[in-house]
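Dear colleague,

Thank you for sharing your sequence with our group. We've completed the structure prediction you requested, and as agreed, I am returning the results in plain text so they can be pasted directly into your records. Please verify that the sequence below matches your submission; if there's any discrepancy, let me know and we will rerun it promptly.
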Amino acid sequence: MELILKRNKLIIGTRGSKLALWQANWVKERLEKLYPDLKIEIEKIKTTGDKILDTPLAKIGGKGLFVKEIEEALLSKKIDIAVHSMKDVPTEIPEGLQISAICEREDPRDAFISIDGTLLRGLPKGAQIGTSSLRRTVQLKALRKDLEIKPLRGNVDTRLRKLKEGQFHGIILAMAGIKRMGLESNVTETIPEEIMIPAIGQGAIGIETRFDDDFINEIIKPLNHQETSICVLSERAFLSVIGGGCQVPLACHAKIFKNKKLKIIAMIGDPDGEMPMIKGSKEGNLEDAQKLGKELAEELLLSGGSKILRKVYT
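Please find the predicted structure tokens below.
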């Protein structure tokens, strides 16, 4: 407990949504168990992504829509740590900051929720599905070209309310958020990773700190989950090579098997659906996790991913 004597207070910065606050409180509770003498407060920060709710993220553009303002508070020392959903964190971290811990991952898959319990494959032709994710849209279209995809923004409760109001036949949400909010009873089916590859970092909570804050970096260490960290860093290595933002449908998911081998699967899609979706996978040793992510990205770019990126950005 020698560390605690250096400082007795810690401020966590987070978005103000129910899910973001659940994640911040989850981190707070674990730190309180480890360090009972440490007083921990939560500071809610509104991000650009929280302010613009009537426009799909792909149209807003830019990176770090849900983290920029929180990182600014961290750099200015208004908060001591930032708690993020790792899927929201760009691969380029501002100078002076670092991701110090990646906590154990919740179910990374996507969940389908229909208004009447109908499975995804059983929906009628022209059924309206709510999602604002290009990643989900492209993979959904590959599965069912006959469905109509409609934009859907807002928190988990808002999206479920819109479904119950009859605005959609079904919606797709991250299973991790549903489980954390205790809403599993709403789920019609979970979609296998092979059919709908999850977003990079989906289901994982990341803790960002100042690089030179030795005290904070030391007390955060026990919250890092090694297997989750290996997988998420592999996925982020893939993203670092692709360099895509919200405008490009991208997906990448890494998983560790019982034989201690890592398998990484990924996808690059054309938002207009004119060009074929590019998919691939690689397997290897855990110590090569980030190398595997970069190699897979290069393979997908050579297989047609570069053409898709050029089309999107020109």
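Summary note from our side: The longest strand covers residues 261-268.

Kind regards,
the structure core
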